[in-house]
Design goal:
elongated, DNA polymerase, domain 1, 3-stranded antiparallel sheet, hpI Integrase, Chain A, mainly alpha, 380 residues
Length: 380
Amino acid sequence: MAATIRVRETKTGEPRYNVRWRQDGRQRTVTTASETYARRLVDVIDAHGYLPREVVEQPAAVTFADTVRAHLEQLSGVRPRTIADYRRDARTHLSDLDGLPVSAIDRDTVVRLIQRWQDQGLASKTIANQHGLLAAIMNTAVRRGWAPTNPCAGIRLPRHDEHEREDMVILTRDQYTALLGCFPERWRPLVETLADTGMRWGELAALTVGDVDVHRARIRIVKAYQRDAHNQLVLGPPKSRRSRRYVDIGPSLLGVLRPLLVGRSADEPLFTVRAGRAVRYSTWYQQAWAPAVARALALVGTDGSPVLGERPTPHDLRHCNASWLLGAGVPMMVVSRRLGHESTATTDRVYSHLVPDAQASAVAALERMSATPTRSDVSA
């Protein structure tokens, strides 16, 4: 007897699909909220003459919330803090799916979810990130036989709007110099290190005296402060494999850092508060950065206009570093390696808008080559 599907409605009007077949002389029934999954069960039964027990036992029982937990538990090679972020995102953006059988989540469910995110005003990048998390969770469901297919596959996401880009405050060198002058003398080496190397705050805070190589004029970045799953700062490896790197520095920054190295052991923090402890972001931001930015915002140029105009963050110094280098013609690959990006694709995605003249430079280079006499031109 071939398997059949009978449709019925719940008290709330939602459809349920009863798959019926005979196996070992007995009538069998499986109920699911997904028509797609029901048809898949029918195909399996018709092809093999029976339905494996592991498939029979799970179709309507496993919820999306169950799948989220299973997905996060089986992740490997991922930082605890990252898993905590995934759990937070699932709770914030995917919780509407929690009570649904994971087998009932289909393409229409995902499309409606994306439309709701758009209505809530989520940026396209945020939508793409949440869709990626949902797709990974559904992949786990498919691998475990809890869902027939991944409904996220092939769904077109909202296009990225350049105006949606996370705001970067890119300072000119003159603006940066003005801002630097607003800091007390003791904090200027820290600010100059951020601006001249483009390193992340967690990498800078983890620097020790021994990380500064005076003879080779470079800084070693092999550790960073990160927040763990309990939001506690812990010292560990940098963000990615590429983040473990050496950053060459010029004579000016080296001259600024030299006094911080004298008479100190290699394992002491390079930048410290007065008590000798490593500097912490929140304290430094409140006591040093915010007051300096406030003073800089009050500065007025000779033409009567504000010197800064916008309020930068410490992370903007990383963006400034990339902008200055790219604007000076430094290749994207070199900038990517200095910043510790995992690939140049990341650097290109974040900073390509800062080099709008790249195409013009390429055309100019070709024109210069065309104007150079070739061997045959010379011999003629």
